[in-house]
Amino acid sequence: MNSRRNFLKGIGAVGVATAGVAVSSGALAGVSSKAFAADLTAKAKLDERGFIYFGEEKNVQEDYMKSMTMRAKPFDFGLSAEQEAKASAITSRTMVFDGEFEVDYYKSLFPNMLSNKAKAVGGSMTLGVMGLDLINGRSGNEMEVVPTDWFHMNTLDRDLEFVKQMEANEPIKICTSYDDYMQASREGKVGVFFDVQDSKWLDNDFDRVKEYKEKGIHRMQLTYNSNNHLGGGCMDTMDRSRDPGVTGYGRRFIDAMNEAKILVDVGHCSPNTAVDAATHSKSPIICSHAGIRDLAPSNPRTHWLADMKKVADKGGVFGIVGVPGALKDGLTVGNVGHFVDAIHFAVNYLGVDHVGFALDQVQAASFDEFMTSPDWPKEAVEAVNVDVWPWQQNFAGMENQSGYFNLVRGLVGKGYSEADIHKVMGGNMLRLIKEVC
After folding, report:
1. Residues 6+ apart with CB under 8 A from 20
2. How many CA atoms lie within 13 Å of 234's alpha carbon, on the beta-carbon side?
3. Per-residue pLDDT at 382
4. Which distant-in-sequence residues (6+ apart) come within 8 Å of 100 by Cβ?
5. b (16+ CB within 10 A) / e for 196-226
6. How far apart are the C-alpha atoms of 128 and 201, rounded to whole Å?
7. Which 8-state DSSP code applies to residue 44?
8. pLDDT tens across 393-407, in order?
9. What pLDDT was estimated at residue 166?
10. Angle between the 271-280 and 305-313 helix axes, to the nearest 10 degrees?
11. Alpha helices, DSSP H, located in 32-168
12. What is the structure's pLDDT at 235?
């Protein structure tokens, strides 16, 4: 494929209702992406270019992947009837904050979040990756992803406008503060915060930090997978001796974020960069979404808990990511039990006041198209051990954001008190927003 790719050509266009394509049973069993794509292509109606046909100018915010519409079922944690009743009651009183609920948008996203019957639900949504308007076909049914659009200021501006227009028709409230989240709760809406996962779009302009805080960005990640002028990215630094940490320029940007009251995020950063950022920042920082390297040492999308202790010691929070390969080495088809086990492992090390969670993505994009980013070369894809896609479709009990209630059930099974469950499910991240933003 050339650098301009159609967003629906490849392994992601699964179960397209409009095209009359059903998800095969093999997809749920975890067949290879190439075999899955070949099976889909054989059944789908294609246009003259070989792309999935949705009809003239039809956008693709429609659900077309089974994992988008599956309502998560109660996972078998072996709970007693009394524990089940307790978990249900706790869920109804829980304020959920998903540290990274999506980098995409699809029709069932917000209804899925609200289906948990929690007291409140919200979280952070990444903008500026590749363009939500392109993902959702606002330019027609050919959706091309251009690598230079990734983490570009123009892409971020388009995304801000896209979601703000969406607010009129979706059960969401765009939030920039803790008080906004509480208002969203009172209105029965999803509280949506915005974040950016790289700093390249800033283009070395310190004034943009404050400008984009005013536009609604509450959190910025110093680096994505690759090293940049601020510090080290996780994919470039599995060898810690080559980890640059935060640069002098990066320290100045952290100062600018502190002044603008933006959360400093090290989710995709290198280990040294995470520690340096926590040490330098005047405000507590967040590692919004990453796995635990103690449990998955071969996966670069992870952090050592000893490093996260430096984040916790400064009042920060570590969000455990719901991606199977980052929860346990070699895990390609996980379940919500693995997710709960990883959260529990982190709590035992860091303390219950410093752990949260982040589902990360139920991606409407095909993985092949997601990999058009310069930050995802072939070796990076192999490093995170993604043999099954979409991984959420096979992630029993957490197929999408409708599975938050299973985290509560799992924590009840681990013997957590209600107060501690509230902290892990959102209280810790909301405390950080209230304190920093």
Report:
1. 43, 44, 45
2. 30
3. 75
4. 123, 124, 126, 195, 267, 288, 289, 319, 321, 358, 359, 360, 361
5. bbbbbbbeeebebbeebbeebbbbbbbbbbb
6. 8
7. S
8. 788 999 999 999 999
9. 85
10. 10
11. 33-43, 66-69, 81-92, 109-114, 132-135, 153-166
12. 87
Q: Which CATH architecture has domain 80-436?
A: Alpha-Beta Barrel (3.20)
Looking at residue 275, what is its pLDDT? Answer: 98
Report whether the peptide linkage leading into residue 300 is cis, meaning its omega lies within 30 degrees of zero: no
DSSP code of residue 325: G
How far apart CA 70 and CA 23 sit, in angstroms, is: 12
Please measure the distance between the N-terminal and C-terminal CA atoms of the chain and give it in whole angstroms: 42
State the pLDDT at residue 21.
Answer: 28
Q: Kindly report the length of the chain.
A: 437
**Rounded Cα gap, residues 432 and 437, in angstroms:** 8
Contact assessment for residue 232 and residue 159, using Cβ atoms and an 8 Å cutoff = no
Q: Would you say 197 and 235 are in contact if contact means Cβ atoms under 8 Å apart?
A: no
d(CA 185, CA 179): 10
Sign of the alpha-carbon torsion through 292, 297, 301, 303: positive
DSSP state at residue 22: P
The residue behind tokens 């075999």 is 35
pLDDT average per 10 residues of sequence, the chain (437 residues): 34 30 31 41 47 41 69 96 98 98 87 96 94 60 65 91 86 97 98 96 91 97 94 88 93 97 97 97 98 95 97 98 91 92 98 97 61 72 66 85 97 98 98 98
Q: Which amino acid is at 166?
A: M
Query: What is the number of alpha carbons within 13 Å of residue 372 lying toward its C-beta?
Result: 25
Query: Position of tokens 């974020």?
Result: 257
- 97 beta partners: 122
Domain boundaries along the sequence of the chain? 80-436
| 416 token code pair | 């957590």
Q: Give the pLDDT of residue 139.
A: 42
Q: Is the pTM above the cut of 0.90?
A: no
Residue 435 neighbours by CB under 8 Å, 6+ apart: 283, 284, 315
36-92 pLDDT, tens per residue? Answer: 344 544 555 544 434 344 444 443 445 557 778 889 999 999 999 999 999 999 999
